[in-house]
Design a protein that fits this description.
The protein has about 260 residues and is of the alpha+beta class. Helices cover about 45% and strands about 20% of the residues. It has 10 helices and 8 strands.
Amino acid sequence: MGVTEEETGRGPVKSAERTVRILQALAEPPYLLSVAQLQERTGYPRSSLHALLRTLVDLDWIDSGPDGYGIGAQALLTGTAYLDRDPALPQALATIEAVRDETRCTTHVARLDGGDVVYLATREAPDAHRAHSRVGRFLPAYATALGKALLAERSATELDDLLPGEELPALTPDTVATRTALDAELAEVRTRGWSVEHGQNLPGTVCVGVSVEYRIPATDAISCSLPAEIATPEEIDRVAAILLRHSTSLARTLRATGIR
């Protein structure tokens, strides 16, 4: 009888992998799922799923209630440790707050993670009626201004590794649909120095983004979100200039303090 990869320690441990997949499922809308919904999303046998859920509830990683299972306090504590250990984030937070105050736009800082961007922080505009993102949210880099600013710093070979192929799955009807079209957008970003997207991940919203070049290639970017009705070319240019000024200052500060 052969030895499995799990037994030799070279492959994934099934129970650990299943635990992570459950937590990932609960981290996506609608954030509360029944056992039947979790089984549909994960494909795990009901008996195994019940045992894992019971263990996660006992350890406070998930909560159980009449509406289903949801992320628990221990998962929140562990997630915030990623932010707490990041030496660049305090300066980045001060920067997006300054950008928010100057532009009066909702501002974000995010990091490239594979082919996605993960939002590290958001500061809402003074008159914002809804949140455009949340800490820990992942979005495809090709569909965001933050991601385009970072993808523009990658070579063609690096982009091949990060992107799903020629066809790019759409988040909205305006999402860039092909690698060829994305390459054209990234060429404009390299020429202009900043990125812009119109409703490619959230209808009715225009986002402007710039990379923060304290690492080469940059891993972080900051952006502003504007309602489409006020996003005139002049307003986009104004916001881009503010973002460029603040991102340059942030990168200089981080490098000077040895954060790379």
